[in-house]
Amino acid sequence: xxxxxxxxxxxxxxxxxxxxxxxxxxxxxxxxxxxxxxxxxxxxxxxxxxxxxxxxxxxxxxxxxxxxxxxxxxxxxxxxxxxxxxxxxxxxxxxxxxxxxxxxxxxxxxxxxxxxxxxxxxxxxxxxxxxxxxxxxxxxxxxxxxxxxxxxxxxxxxxxxxxxxxxxxxxxxxxxxxxxxxxxxxxxxxxxxxxxxxxxxxxxxxxxxxxxxxxxxxxxxxxxxxxxxxxxxxxxxxxxxxxxxxxxxxxxxxxxxxxxxxxxxxxxxxxxxxxxxxxxxxxxxxxxxxxxxxxxxxxxxxxxxxxxxxxxxxxxxxxxxxxxxxxxxxxxxxxxxxxxxxxxxxxxxxxxxxxxxxxxxxxxxxxxxxxxxxxxxxxxxxxxxxxxxxxxxxxxxxxxxxxxxxxxxxxxxxxxxxxxxxxxxxxxxxxxxxxxxxxxxxxxxxxxxxxxxxxxxxxxxxxxxxxxxxxxxxxxxxxxxxxxxxxxxxxxxxxxxxxxxxxxxxxxxxxxxxxxxxxxxxxxxxxxxxx
Length: 531
Known about the structure:
Elements: E1 26-36, E2 50-52, E3 74-75, E4 78-79, H1 80-88, E5 93-96, E6 120-122, E7 128-130, H2 136-146, E8 149-154, H3 161-172, H4 178-185, E9 196-199, H5 212-224, E10 235-241, H6 248-255, E11 263-270, H7 287-297, H8 299-320, E12 330-338, H9 357-372, E13 377-383, E14 393-396, E15 399-402, H10 404-411, E16 419-421, E17 423-427, E18 429-432, E19 435-438, E20 440-446, E21 452-458, E22 463-472, E23 479-485, E24 504-505, E25 509-512, E26 515-520, E27 524-530
Parallel strand pairs: 1-22, 2-5, 2-13, 5-8, 8-9, 9-10, 10-11, 11-12, 12-13
Antiparallel strand pairs: 1-17, 3-4, 6-7, 14-15, 16-20, 18-19, 20-21, 21-27, 22-26, 23-24, 23-27, 25-26
Helix pairs in contact: 3-4, 5-6, 6-8, 7-9, 9-10
């Protein structure tokens, strides 16, 4: 995650002449979707629906962890309401402790009796003390309570290769070593399971301002010493490129691959732009803000395509040379989502932002893109799970609400582990003030239960669209669905009205003559299940 430093950004009041509001529905348009049930693609790895929880603002403290003595109902300090919400979401993978925070995190600060743990200043996010009462054991308690797997980010910025190797042994060791005995003395007998172990984070920036070639050498050294008896071994992740368009770190890692490298990360956040510093307001934005955010979101497709081509070429070269390292390398989009201005009155370093129907549609569009590249994109983690950026959950003391983005992830649960299906989409454009985007975003998959699931988003805030779907290789006999929609472009949930934006059963789908038609209202997300 990008580093804001101790000098917090200064919020500038922005007045929009055209605010997000209810708009009249214009004439309906049409789109045609062809789902190739007869040409199945790659399995959509469940890790594509991963989450990210960093020591940032109230993302951990107050959001997930309140301590065992809190009046807020909890289990060993973990909020019962948040745990229940994440368990219901079927979160498959949770990333921790960062982000930029990871490269100043020393794991020994967060083990042992909480009263004796080290307090350090979080220099990346708000300059506030971190008491380290949430550490390794508390993190694994959380992932086990919600039924997720663990993605742990090692500290390459201020740590050492020995420190990272010893943390891995502490977490996963099963022999009678000093580190294993220490873990047992701290209350955990059996090993923890680490699914993904990352070597550094954003090494081009907050993780050390490294050159690509230098980091590639560092990665090879570090990965060589990440040894464990855990089977299967953790996937080893290299820190890749930033902002999607860059490829220099990916290229350097591919050209200098000597140690085991299961995947390379890529980070891309949707901002208003054109410069990184230009952020939109999370609510009260104009229609230009609506379409620009969605247009910038859709750039994810091209960025993944570019990295996929680079990785495919590298794999072909290694294969031609007879290298044992010619296995497919995963592309992990382990930071993505919308990044807006912080909420007025909040600590700018805490990255608190509201979550609207615009964010929900951006999430659906990204997930549809990830499904398209299921063969390459094998993990993603949206930033972040609770109270930070494009969060699933917002809390305020004992209160909690689910965001529109949470609801999209819930609606899209059937895609986890499903087999992606190629789609052909013919759709008109939605245009405003010189910017155009396709009106409809779509993806499809065959679930483990044999259903066909179709994800659709109408990016147009004004016009309804009828999507006619042709199922190649299947005769559809039944369709059900769910819809998330809203009247205003900035519709969102508040603690006074926590269900203002929520999914309901969709009654706009019909089957006739072997074709499926669905009428999508403006600014809506629909998931259909077809038998």
